[in-house]
Each structure stands twice: as structure tokens, then as C-alpha cells.
């Protein structure tokens, strides 16, 4: 696992490790794939039985060539750690090295979004062809493996757990005439399409709504977002605190989370907002409709605009995945965007009726509490790992 950053995937991994460490019958070792470790992950690594760098030895970076050096490192790690099963977290195209070192029988791949990405197609296909079973974090991830990669092995879905333990005590109530507070929680990168939320903010202002938008997160497109807000005349309604240390407080002070991402294998931020009783307006893409129950805990907006339209709205298309999963048609399609007017329409539907807002808030809390319990998530993954260690595969879903 790469631990140089502190984004949603890394925090999900860290929470899993910490929760699993409390199990008395489990021995955990972590192989860190990055060359550095974010300071906030040091506590996580202190809780495992053993950990090592993948690409460092004796404090030195191992060169890519000759390849024998890294192959020897993998073999040494295998002898040192002797895992009953190695959970291969994402990085699909790079996992052949682990398979070669440990053998297919001891390797269980755990898909968290790598199957969407471009590059290493031959290596990815080779890894999948060697594995009789895998686990993944959403039904969307399962279908991406099956539709894009024609994977025919067993796929067991272990939905992500909700990291936060701070659930709202009860449903929120919002007076219809109160100022509206929108929120975005994401890295400021092209795939998250934050510019669409800024356009939706402008559309709501044009409709006479007293509204502000707070963006929790940072990234290379920060200056672009600020420039767009100025161009649209809504910069004075935009708050950009950067990375927010206490996300529970962030969700508590917004009325609606807007998440217009172009790709989202699961959507942890949508689950976090729901736990705080905050309805979500998001793109109907990939795994988001598994987290946001359309019409009950928020609204999933169909993406209808192409990438040319995205660029016209100020979007950056560099580094986007070639395909995403359309859960409505059950097909692999090219990425598309939500129209800002459609996002604004969905926000209006959430806030127009105070009673509907309260019902959505209550349903969001209940849905996340029951569907995405983190201890249950750990139980599911460990059960799959033990079954794989014992049998070399997983039983098909009932």
C-alpha cells in the first residue's frame, strides 16, 4: 500500500489496519509501496506486528534495473513475513511481482479503483488471469472487472466501511428560508470535477438563492477553482479552507454535500456526509448510487455532458480514466459530466420542503449505520482472507 499521501483511500486502509489490529487472533504485516510515509500514518504502522518498505532496503532505494534486485526483495519479504494470505491492495498492474514471489495460492487481490485506470493493460490482464478469486469494495468494481477485463473468477463484494464513529444524534431540520450552505469534500484534481459545483453555485445564485459553498480539500486545481469563481461572480460566496482536520465538523455545518465526480468506485465522502445527517447530491456513476439511495438519502444526477462540454465549463481532462461504469445501463462508457443546472435542480429538490429534508437526513443516517458498519467490513474481509487461505479460492455468492 502506498502511504505517502493522506487521501480517502489511504485513510480507509489505515482505519482497516487499526480496527483489524484489535482482533486477538490476527497477525498483520504491511508492505509500504511508496518511498515515503505521511506523518499521520506513523501511528497506524505502530499498531501492526511488522512492516517494511517494498522498494527500500537498508535505507537505500532499490533501482528498477536490474529487475533481479526487486525480485530478490520480494522473495526476501515473502520469507520474512510468511503470510497465510497477502491482501494485494489495488495497484493491479504491479501485483504480478508479488504473485511471482509468493505464488498465486497465497495472494488475494483487493480492488479499490485500479481497474478503471489506463496503462499496464497487459500486466493487469495477466494478474487477473492468474487469480481464481478477488474481493472488491463495490458492485461497480465487480462489474468493472467483469465487463472491462472479462474477469471470470469469483468476485466477492466487501463494501467499504464508514470510518467515522461520530453519527448525528438525530435527523436535521432546516427552515426553508435559511441561507443554504453547500459543501464539497475532495482533492482538487480533474476527476473530482469541482468546477461543476462552482457552476452549480452560480446557477443557484441566479435563481435568487442565498447560498455559500465551502470546499474541504486541496490540490493542483485550487487556483483554477478560485479563478472560475471570480469569473462567475461568486468568489465572495466561496470558502476554501484547504484540508480540514475535523471532517465531522465540516459535514455538520453544511446542508448538502455536492459530489459531481466523474469516477468514484465507492464514494467514502458521500457515506461520511450521510453519517452526519447531510443529504448528498452526486453523479449517478460507478459506486455512488450504492452509497446514495436516490430520492431517499439524496439524489444521483445522470451525467449527460461529454468531455468537450467539461472543458467548456473550465474542466481539466488530463489524466482522466478512459472508461467508467454506468450503473443504470450496466455498461462501460466514456466519462461524462453532470450539467450544473441539473445539480442545482437536485439541490433545490433536497431543500424545497423542510419535511422532506428531515426525512432524507434520517434515512441517510440509518442507511450508513446499517450498510457500512466498519467492524462488519473488517469481519467480511477477514472472513474472505481466511477462506482463501484455507481453500485457495472463494465460494460463489449465494
UniProtKB/TrEMBL annotation:
Gene3D superfamilies for this protein: Glycogen Phosphorylase B (3.40.50.2000)
Pfam families for the chain: Glyco_transf_4 (PF13439), Glycos_transf_1 (PF00534)
One GO MF term attached to the UniProt entry: glycosyltransferase activity
Domain spans labelled Glycosyltransferase subfamily 4-like N-terminal: 6-162
InterPro entries, sorted: Glyco_trans_1, Glyco_trans_4-like_N
Domain of life according to the entry: Bacteria
Alphabetized UniProt keyword annotations: Glycosyltransferase, Transferase
Glycosyl transferase family domain segment(s): 182-304
Statement: the UniProt record of this protein carries the keyword ATP-binding: no
Protein known as: Glycosyl transferase family 1 domain-containing protein
